Amino acid sequence: MFSHGSRASSRITDDELNALILKLQTLLPQLNQGRNARVSATKVLNETCSYIRRLQKEVDDLSERLSQRPGSMDITSFDAEILRNLLQQ
């Protein structure tokens, strides 16, 4: 069991949370277009989820394309599976 002290020490302060949201905002292309406007945390988190879904779809699409072309790239199916797994991480 955790003591109250260990739980309290692992909590993030409002300032730390705001700093993390600002850092996250800078990583999102659709929210980081040269303007320094403050965006709500809800919008940043929603955009983050959407961006991650788009990236995952891209990985899936590229993985599918890669799996369809192993013969032309002189790689074995084992190599293709390794690449597919790496892309999905």
UniProtKB/TrEMBL annotation:
Pfam families, sorted: bHLH_ILI
Keyword match Lipid metabolism: no
Cell compartment(s), UniProt: Nucleus
Keyword terms of this UniProt record: Growth regulation, Nucleus, Transcription, Transcription regulation
Coiled coil: none
InterPro entries: bHLH_dom, HLH_DNA-bd_sf, ILI2-like, PRE
Cellular component, GO annotation: nucleus
Designated name of the protein: Transcription factor ILI3-like
Organism of derivation: Durio zibethinus (Durian)
